Amino acid sequence: MTKRGWKIFIVLTVFTAFILTLFHWQWMTGFLIGSGASALAYRNTENYVDRTISAQMPAGTAFHMMLNYMIWTVVLVIAAVLPNYLNILSCALGLFMVRFSLIIDTLWRKE
């Protein structure tokens, strides 16, 4: 993702978190932890792709995907176990924030 994509991600995350705070603070905290996990999983994928391109061979694909699924699972389980502090549905929404940012960045690109 480009610097512009990360800026879109940050603006979307802050704006959405502010809107969710107006309803329930638990929605905001769940959303923020989901967004953080989304960014972490994306960085993991980005590092994997960089290592694969530099080595010219895919290595550790199963571990990489398993790590991403573990990140998503841990975040959702924490949100399910702590419903007084985190909302699981807003956490799931946060897990899609990088994807939303990539889509918006692609649609607004003027080339």
Description of the molecule:
There is one protein chain. The protein contains 5 helices and no strands. The chain is mostly helical. The chain is flat and about 50 Å long.
> How would you sum up the major sheet?
none
Supply the number of helical segments: 5
Strand content: under 5%
Quaternary status? single chain
Count of extended strands: 0
Topology order in helix (H) and strand (E) letters: HHHHH
Low-confidence residue ranges = none
Globally, the shape reads flat
Mean pLDDT: 88
Span from first to last CA?
Answer: 16 Å
Overview in brief:
With 111 residues, this protein is an all-alpha fold. Helix content is 82%, strand content 0%.
Keywords for this entry:
mainly alpha; about 80% helix; about 110 residues; 5 helices
